[in-house]
């Protein structure tokens, strides 16, 4: 008489009325199922009780009555079985269930009445053991309501009341008034049974309501999951207790590039590439532990993809989760990670990764002694960018990086620190000689010609080498040493190298001290100007003075420009120092007697200063200097930089009326081209050509060519560094117009030239004592020239 679960699929009408109908349908389904189950379980005890009563009382009462009573019981059970089998188990309607339920309740009422009728009747004849048997069966039938009628409260209450009346009557028949304790005990039983029936009814109704709510929620979830599966970029997946795929969806199979039949029951981890992530997935599946955002690699149709998986265990032993293709995100993440550690142009390590690897290498205790660092910088790479363009420069940098990387071992690190600066980090026990040999190898691979788009490029580089041979330097110190070595190499010239040593360090410390002192040099009043006269070679008269900067250092003494101007130029301190020099030169020379010009040197950085023209104009106006008496000397380095600002400043200075001279002419590789680019007023012949001019035919030819060229271009010439009388005479014969040098006068403070007497004293002093004699001789010759001509 077992009944299937007809509540597996319960219709869910919409609206409140529909919900109530669903609850009633579920209740009736469960009541019938439980009622049938209870009746089935109680069938054997009931038949046994019927047989026991018939057998025990067959002689006390007419057998026909007992058999008739037993037949009524069996008839009632038979009708119940017929009704039960007539019920539609597949899809019963609510009306059909209600009709069957009413029939079952009626049958139970009839069964309760049949039982209740027998006990008072038999109590009239029961004695001894028969009375005990009758009491046991009566109590068993009364309590049987918990088994048979627990889901049918109407039938249960009717059965309890009917049996209570029947047992009460039987007790009174048996004992009369003396059976009152048994009646009290019976009342307790009845109250307990009624309370139990009420509680069971409350639980079954609450359970049905909760079940309907759960089914509604599950239906909603199913709808959402179906919609999610159709429209989301994620895919649902489920695995069994052994980690094999179950209920594989079409979208999951499509994403995996395999048929559903092939994936069904196959191991989930078999889809993914071996590695730590797959091992982690296997561990989660084995332990049935939830996980979140686990990224695994797999191949789909031969292409590498990345999936992100999340899952949680289910109560049925399975695990369900979602998967998402994050290949694009992973590519972006890997790109970001690459950009964070590698140079985007060359693919080499960048400064961040280099610093990290360097610190890790130096943290290895004794092995830190073996760490060597090479800094490599390309020589004048800016010229490549300026002449060939940045795109070609970038391609050249890539080629350089490739060559350097091919020249090292696999575990060595090559990094691009920025611009055209590279770093090579190696670990070796080699000494200084081997390190120098390896640096030469780097220079050699860079020196070899580069062929790009059919064009050949030749470049060179400089290398600085440093090693923590004592094992007591950190990353910052080693980089500082390599940087100092590179700086020393570049000062030697192109295509060279330098190995860090204490001498380089001392020179750098001294340079830093100079820089620190230079920052306070103006405020402390330590700068001064010395002046060197310039004479006319025909008349011997002083026609100008060149202002030369001197630093009166309290500890080092007088420092010449060659010892500190390079530092000032590199640090930008040359600009305020140069502005001070201009103002100071005008302030001092404005008080001197005579009509002469004042020459002041301008550095490349000064010429690029946007304030230069304004400073000059203000100084000229403040001290009343005629602009045509002012001459600024520049070197060809100013023009080599091809700065529009520099050229603009030079043009504006010419518009003010000042003169521009090209200093150190002849020592550059393209000096002649600069004479075409800017109309200089004067050319100053470098002292390298003046020195030995009396003995060198080449120098004489060069000086003669310069003077003729200047004359053709309308430019004056001044020879620098004159130290002998022979040089002076020869320069005049070669066409040079003016000269300056130690023969004429050494540079001296301004007070030596403030008056004619002071000038005479200055120009008679020291080794230059014969210059005034020369001057007088030239003046006498000039006076005699008209007489001789006549």
What brief labels describe this structure?
alpha/beta, Beta-Lactamase, disordered C terminus, 5-stranded antiparallel sheet, disordered N terminus, 790 residues, 4 domains, Alpha-Beta Plaits, 8-stranded mixed beta barrel
Descriptive report:
By secondary structure, the chain is an alpha/beta fold. It folds into four domains: 15-214; 232-332, Beta-Lactamase; 342-500, Alpha-Beta Plaits, CATH 3.30.70; 525-789, EAL domain (TIM Barrel, Alpha-Beta Barrel), CATH 3.20.20. It is 55% helix and 16% strand. It has 29 helices and 22 strands. The strands form four sheets. The chain has an eight-stranded mixed barrel, surrounded by four helices. Helix 2 (63-85) runs antiparallel to helix 3 (94-123). The longest helix is centred in the N-terminal third of the chain and has 52 residues, at 180-231. Residues 1-18, 766-770 and 785-790 have low confidence and may be disordered.
Please write out the topology.
Blueprint: H1 15-56, H2 63-85, H3 94-123, H4 128-143, H5 145-148, H6 153-175, H7 180-231, E1 234-239, E2 245-246, H8 250-256, H9 260-263, H10 276-287, E3 291-300, E4 303-313, E5 319-325, H11 327-341, H12 351-362, E6 371-378, H13 381-388, H14 390-406, E7 413-418, E8 421-427, H15 432-447, E9 450-452, E10 455-457, E11 461-467, H16 475-492, E12 497-499, H17 502-518, E13 527-536, E14 542-553, E15 557-559, H18 565-571, H19 574-589, E16 597-601, H20 604-607, H21 612-623, E17 630-634, H22 636-640, H23 644-656, E18 659-665, H24 671-677, E19 682-685, H25 687-690, H26 697-713, E20 716-719, H27 725-733, E21 738-739, E22 748-749, H28 756-764, H29 771-789
